[in-house]
Every structure is written in structure tokens, then in C-alpha cells.
Amino acid sequence: xxxxxxxxxxxxxxxxxxxxxxxxxxxxxxxxxxxxxxxxxxxxxxxxxxxxxxxxxxxxxxxxxxxxxxxxxxxxxxxxxxxxxxxxxxxxxxxxxxxxxxxxxxxxxxxxxxxxxxxxxxxxxxxxxxxxxxxxxxxxxxxxxxxxxxxxxxxxxxxxxxxxxxxxxxxxxxxxxxxxxxxxxxxxxxxxxxxxxxxxxxxxxxxxxxxxxxxxxxxxxxxxxxxxxxxxxxxxxxxxxxxxxxxxxxxxxxxxxxxxxxxxxxxxxxxxxxxxxxxxxxxxxxxxxxxxxxxxxxxxxxxxxxxxxxxxxxxxxxxxxxx
Amino acid sequence: xxxxxxxxxxxxxxxxxxxxxxxxxxxxxxxxxxxxxxxxxxxxxxxxxxxxxxxxxxxxxxxxxxxxxxxxxxxxxxxxxxxxxxxxxxxxxxxxxxxxxxxxxxxxxxxxxxxxxxxxxxxx
Lengths: 323, 124
Hints:
Chain B: This is DNA-directed RNA polymerase RBP11-like dimerisation domain-containing protein. Chain A is built from nine helices and 14 strands. Chain A is an alpha+beta fold. Chain A has two domains: 8-38 and 198-287, RNA polymerase, RBP11-like subunit (Gyrase A, domain 2, 2-Layer Sandwich), CATH 3.30.1360; 44-191, DNA-directed RNA polymerase, insert domain (RNA Polymerase Alpha Subunit, Chain A, domain 2, Beta Complex), CATH 2.170.120.12. In chain A, the strands form five sheets. Chain A has a four-stranded antiparallel beta sheet. Chain A has a four-stranded antiparallel beta sheet with strand order 3-10-5-7. Chain A has a two-stranded antiparallel ribbon with strand order 4-8. In chain A, a hairpin with a 6-residue loop joins strand 12 and strand 13. The mean pLDDT of chain A is 92. Helices cover 36% and strands 22% of the residues of chain B. Chain B has two helices and four strands; from the N terminus they run E-E-H-E-E-H. Chain B has a single domain, classed as Gyrase A, domain 2 (2-Layer Sandwich). Chain B has helices at 40-51, 84-116; strands spanning 19-23, 30-36, 56-62, 70-77. Chain B has a four-stranded antiparallel beta sheet, with helices on one face. Chain B is flat, with a radius of gyration of 20 Å. Chain B is α+β, with helices and mostly antiparallel strands. At the A-B interface, strand 1, helix 1 and helix 9 of A face strand 1, helix 1 and helix 2 of B.
């Protein structure tokens, strides 16, 4: 007998790096599975191997390799302007049949910065300054793959930033390396994590007992409004009734303050509550913020695809077990 | 020096099956599935879905140790007519359909949001 549910999605906000949505008519197990997959199992690209030709900078090889690893790498499918899901374009390196690496499972970045050579191109008065090597100095061998500096051109124009700093060079110093990015998931290393933030909060169900509230004076209602540190209540200016504020879901932290305040106002302890705020068990407000490696909406789509793949795999394995 | 590979958390060992089953020796209609290389993500999802099935009397899972990438999922059914594996299949299928439904929901919702909030900023 099928026990299937039909969850609903409402989008509250979409930006390239951020998405906020409501997942409803399902339970915490689904919300939590999605959250965990977004954090740990959505594949992205990250620098995983670095070959040094020359490093005379002040930082040692390992230190620079670690910094390179943490730079978000964006994959943009052909004709798309979004940082997308890279799983169709690449193979996980463990699964690839090639001997060492190939374009199917890796992307190569070249970096070659020589302070003295660069200094000759600088104006006279700037030649005493050190030179910062940034993610912009990484030259990709794949047109679709690049380090994520900025999410859009507008942001790039407004910013004085030159990309993600890697190391500063002084006179006589030279950094030359080849960095190899591979696809992976953040169960292996956090550098493959596409999200900076992936959380959900419970939708607050605010029930206001208007009948009980009619016993209260305006001052008492105002006291209730002020008792809540999250300010989820307000007084309707025309009717003087207590109402929940529109964006209560962003603020509610389910504190006990309202309970305490209204218990003091009750004539008898067993009287009905004036206001009840409970966590909904089937409605969740998700916030997902990207590191820049993928667009936030793509992370959501990708997490669903990963979930689907995992379920299909388990289904096939259970079938095998039955035979 | 003897640290296990980080990928051991999600890639099956050479001699490992994804799922193993052991029928319970003391309880009828019950058995334990060992899901290799799984964690709370899938097991909690499966457990909650199994508990919604009226043919399931008991469903619970255990993660024996944070460094052991295995899950023990125990299922007991109400009658001998239904094997624990049957209920597990059904739960996976329901979840799979739910995910399909979610994928269409998300696609539609994103499209709808973009239609209503077309600011020309999205580069479409």
C-alpha cells in the first residue's frame, strides 16, 4: 500500500548566491536529508593536486596547496550563465578509467607569476609594493571551468578586490605551478562543499485566541507584544486586536517569554492561552547560501538529483537481495 | 599514518556488498539490514517512511560508531505474509516518487518565481 506524500515548495527569494524557500507537507526526515545532502553530497570541483615548478614565495608548498584547494571553482554549462551541476560533465576521479588523469575527470590550471617580470610593467611609484597572487592568476584549460571570483559582472565592477588572495610576492620571488581540479563531495573534504549555509527552521504556528484576548485591556495586549523578545506580535491599529506580524517566521525563536507573560495575566491558571506559538512539524523554511561554486538554485536541484540517485541505487540493491 | 582513506565513508570496499540481510533468530517476521557506506541521511529517511507503513510493526536504525560507515536497520512486520524486504522496497519506492514530485515542484516554483520577479538581473 503506497504511503507516498506530495510535498509542496514555495520560493521566497532567489539570488545567484542565495535561495530561501518553504518545504511543506512532509516531515523532518525529508528536510534533514535534503540539508545533509546539500552540505555533504552535492558534487563540485576543487583543486586537489598541485605540481610545483618553482616556489620561492614566503609560504611553503603545502600551505599554498591548501589555499588553492579552498578556492571555489565554478562549472558553467555551455550557453548557461549559471554555476551549474558538474556531474554531467565530469567523472569522479575514483571512477575514471584513465591511468592518472584526463579531461574527463580533471581540469588543469596554470599559474605563473614572477615578481620581477611583473614589476617592469608597473608604474614607477608602485614598484616598491608587494604583488598579491590571486585566484585570477589561475588560467584554466577548460573554457567552462573557472575560479569563482564574483557572482556577476556588476559585483566585479563595484569591487576593488582583485580575486581571492593566495600569496604575496616580493622582489626576486617567483611562483609557478600547475593545479589539478577534480570533482568530489565534501564527505571527503570540506573544500568540495557547495554551501556556506544550508539550514532550515520550523515554521511558527501562531494561534491567537481572539475570544480570550477580548478580556484583555489594551495595555495588557501591549504588554504581551512587548513580552516577546522576537517581536512576533503587534496590535492592529484599527481594531486593537493582537495579530502576528507578517514575517514572524524569520524571527520566531520559540522562547518561553510569551508563555510566562500570559500566565501572569490569566485569572485562573487553567484558562485558555491567549497566544500559542508552536513549531510546525510539516513546514520548514530553508535558507541556502552558496560558496560561489554553484548557483543556490542549482544546489537545490542537484541535491534532489543526488537523493533520487541514492534511492534508485538502494532500490536496485534491495531487489538483488530478494532474489 | 594508519588513518583510513576519507573516501572510505562513501565508496564500497572491494569485498563489500551494499546491503546485507540477517533474519532475526528470536523474533518472527523480523530482520536486520546492514547498509554499508550509509549514514543518517538515508537511514532516518527510510526509518520514518517505514514507520508510516501499517504493515510495519517496528523500524529502527543504529549507527554503531562514527568511524564505522555502516547502518543497522531493523524491521519487523505485522504478519508473516509480508517480508521485511518487501516493506523496505515499498518505502524506497514511495520516497523515490516523493523525490520525483519534489523535483517537478521545485522546477515549477523556480520558474514561477522568475516569471513574477523578472528584474532582468538573472541574465536570462
